[in-house]
């Protein structure tokens, strides 16, 4: 992370007093024990105590805090539920955490316009729970949907098991209220399906808290499909399972969800939830089909035939809603289930073209042997979004570093086959130094210019997304500490 500014650290008491002048005492956390709860997000391997934590209760208080920090030059890290899997909410030592958990109300439910207006601290599943009595739901469903918040979903452009057919967050939001670093409140979009002018929502979704703080989100809700049934398909190899995925899509079938797990993930998950997954297969594919009953019945027959052509050795079709939900219960619990087979794991997030699935799975197996670390694969097969779980023991010297190197090789592999570094977890800290693998210096410079247009001082979520070496020359400037330039061995330009 960037070196903390000594001048800000020295003014800590003054800054905390200034924040307490804006918010009730209960909304400002300055003691070490209280701050410790905010020292990391779901990537707990990286930890850093923030200067202070503030918990505003409304947009006006968010605006006041940001304006104060802008005037004082204090960095700000926005935080939702802390479920980020890329270190996106990792604090900086000379900055505050701006927690949005108190902005947790649904402000409006508009069935006529099929829209819900919610504050950023509302959980993903909370939106569906609020509208399901009327036969509606919110489509994006990350595995952490019981805990992750809609504001964090906007920051990371979260997806989920049903993103293949119904899209990621960017395809399901209609408007946002955004507070800039100087305290200015802006609104983009609304309840209309399309907004004129620039695609501000497309820019802001997935911006990882670098451009502003979202204080209100308008999302699109959908009618629950008339029927939904799932197939559980087992294959003798991951390659055959991957081939089945490609053939289903090539046949013009777009399932509501299509997920895949390999043998280690299957065994860990079945031991965790006991839903009846087959344990004698190398790959398990869950395919959900939804729509009118007659269409679903027809598509089940077609998918079954495709699975047979790919040498499927087991096949189960859900006969009721309880069984369908049981199929998904295992997949949703795959990440915590991995804790049964390894003391620690890193959850990666790369996306590849579907045609490269077999090739990438084979290469990842080779890398697993090369690094001497276990690997369990769980991924959104339909859109090529991989979530390899690298298994290691942090108590063994050097294993965490090996796991990081292994993960970096997986992400480079994704880019090499025509994919990208992330599908839904974001870049954050985890993938920051790999950005040059995917983007040229010109690309990164253009992205940084957008960041500077919203946040000229670079105070919002510093240390994320952009490689640190790239930051050295931003705006023609270089940070010199103690009379020594950083990395003196590197050629200058």
UniProtKB/TrEMBL annotation:
The keyword Flavoprotein applies. It comes from Elstera cyanobacteriorum. SUPFAM superfamilies: FAD-binding/transporter-associated domain-like, FAD-linked oxidases, C-terminal domain. This is FAD-binding oxidoreductase. Keywords: FAD, Flavoprotein, Oxidoreductase. InterPro entries: FAD-bd_oxidored_4_C, FAD-bd_PCMH, FAD-bd_PCMH-like_sf, FAD-bd_PCMH_sub2, FAD-linked_Oxase-like_C, FAD-linked_OxidoTrans_Type4, Oxid_FAD_bind_N, Vanillyl_alc_oxidase_C-sub2. Pfam families: FAD-oxidase_C, FAD_binding_4. Its cofactor is FAD. One of its GO terms (molecular function) is FAD binding. Gene3D superfamilies: 3.30.465.10, 3.30.70.2740, Vanillyl-alcohol Oxidase, Chain A, domain 4 (1.10.45.10). Residues 46-224 form the FAD-binding PCMH-type domain.
């Amino acid at each position: 992370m960037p070196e903390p500014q000594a001048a800000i650290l020295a003014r800590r008491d003054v800054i905390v007093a200034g924040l307490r002048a804006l918010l009730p005492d209960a909304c400002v956390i300055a003691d070490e024990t209280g701050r410790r709860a905010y020292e990391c997000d779901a990537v707990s391997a990286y930890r850093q105590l923030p200067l202070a934590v503030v918990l505003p209760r409304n947009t006006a208080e968010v605006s006041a805090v940001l304006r104060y920090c802008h005037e004082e030059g204090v960095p700000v890290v926005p935080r939702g539920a802390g479920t980020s899997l890329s270190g996106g909410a990792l604090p900086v030592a000379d900055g505050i955490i701006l927690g949005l958990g108190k902005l947790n109300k649904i402000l409006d439910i508009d069935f006529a316009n099929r829209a819900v207006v919610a504050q950023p601290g509302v959980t993903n599943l909370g939106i569906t729970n609020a509208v399901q009595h009327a036969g509606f739901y919110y489509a994006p469903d990350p595995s952490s949907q019981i805990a992750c918040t809609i504001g964090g979903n906007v920051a990371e452009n979260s997806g989920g098991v049903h993103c293949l057919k119904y899209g990621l967050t960017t395809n399901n939001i209609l408007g946002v209220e955004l507070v800039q670093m100087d305290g200015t409140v802006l609104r983009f979009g609304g309840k209309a399906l399309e907004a004129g002018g620039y695609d501000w929502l497309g820019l802001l979704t997935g911006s990882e808290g670098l451009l502003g703080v979202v204080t209100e989100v308008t999302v699109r809700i959908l009618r629950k499909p008339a029927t939904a049934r799932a197939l559980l398909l087992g294959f003798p190899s991951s390659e055959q399972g991957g081939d089945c995925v490609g053939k289903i899509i090539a046949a013009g079938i777009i399932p509501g969800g299509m997920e895949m797990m390999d043998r280690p993930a299957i065994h860990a998950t079945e031991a965790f939830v006991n839903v009846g997954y087959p344990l004698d297969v190398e790959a398990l594919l869950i395919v959900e089909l939804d729509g009118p009953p007659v269409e679903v019945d027809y598509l089940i027959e077609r998918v079954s035939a495709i699975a047979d052509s790919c040498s499927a050795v087991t096949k189960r079709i859900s006969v009721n809603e309880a069984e369908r939900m049981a199929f998904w219960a295992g997949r949703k619990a795959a990440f915590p289930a991995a804790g049964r087979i390894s003391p620690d794991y890193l959850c990666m997030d790369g996306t590849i073209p579907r045609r490269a699935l077999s090739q990438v799975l084979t290469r990842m197996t080779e890398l697993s042997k090369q690094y001497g670390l276990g690997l369990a694969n769980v991924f959104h097969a339909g859109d090529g979004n991989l979530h390899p779980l690298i298994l290691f023991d942090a108590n063994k010297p050097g294993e965490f570093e090996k796991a990081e190197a292994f993960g970096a090789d997986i992400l480079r592999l994704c880019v090499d086959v025509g994919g990208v570094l992330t599908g839904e977890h974001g870049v954050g800290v985890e993938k920051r130094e790999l950005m040059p693998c995917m983007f040229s210096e010109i690309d990164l410079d253009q992205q940084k210019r957008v960041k500077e247009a919203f946040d000229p001082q670079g105070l919002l979520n510093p240390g994320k997304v952009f490689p640190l070496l790239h930051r050295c020359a931003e705006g023609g400037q270089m940070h010199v500490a103690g009379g020594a330039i950083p990395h003196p061995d590197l050629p200058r330009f």
